[in-house]
Amino acid sequence: MEPIIAPSILASDFSRLAEEVQAIEGAADWAHVDVMDNHFVPNLTIGLPVVQSLRKATSIPFDVHLMITDPQRWAPAYAEAGAYNVTFHAEACDDPVALAKTLRAAGSKAGLAIDRDTPVEPYLELLPYLDTILIMTIKAGFGGQAFMPELLDKVRDVRRRAQVNDLEIRIEVDGGIAADTIEQAAEAGADAFVAGTAVYGAADPAEAIRKLRALAKA
Ligand code: DX5
Ligand code: ZN
């Protein structure tokens, strides 16, 4: 599948969110929206009202990454708000298959995120119920952290299982993805790439996206 580049707006200027998202329209495939509740992770970002408002300001698909406790309660509202994909954390959900079904019924794709310290093996059998699986390449909570290449073994495990069972699933990586790390993530089998600092920290975000896309294809 063609690579997906999903800039994380966590690294953008929150006082100008609409313009920041508009700046990547045309160049990026998805806008990655990090929702943090200061409970599942020790950081607080934006929630449903902001996503609802932002949805009206742009046509780019939203890839919502919920770093929150109790996603069963909150995730469907993001699908109803027009998110293209809604990803919740395995560590916060005791019935991922049920929530994935609820999300699909609510009109979005369903994604499962695996944090740094969580093994992926127990979740491989859930792949048929998911549209995306997000393998964290850092510990979730903050942008700007260093990429951890050892976590790519989880990407390899998912890719192998997807190939054996002929599954259509996006394998997404999130954390420290930049020009010097995206190629190894792509080689491991990832085909969707979240990049915060590498895009919004660049002088020309659209150019940074083009460069990342070329490296992901190489
Ligand atoms: C962190 C978030 C990431 C973050 C990535 O928990 O899930 O999406 O924005 O930022 P960078 O690309 O700077 O590592
Ligand atoms: Zn994220």
Automatic annotation (TrEMBL):
GO terms for molecular function: D-ribulose-phosphate 3-epimerase activity. The gene is rpe. This is Ribulose-phosphate 3-epimerase. InterPro entries: Aldolase_TIM (IPR013785), Ribul_P_3_epim (IPR026019), Ribul_P_3_epim-like (IPR000056), RibuloseP-bd_barrel (IPR011060). Transmembrane segments: none annotated. Pathway: Carbohydrate degradation. It comes from Actinoplanes sichuanensis. Signal peptide: none annotated. Binds 1 divalent metal cation per subunit. Substrate binds at residues 8, 65, 141-144, 174-176. Catalyzes the reversible epimerization of D-ribulose 5-phosphate to D-xylulose 5-phosphate. Its cofactor is Co(2+); Mn(2+); Zn(2+); Fe(2+).
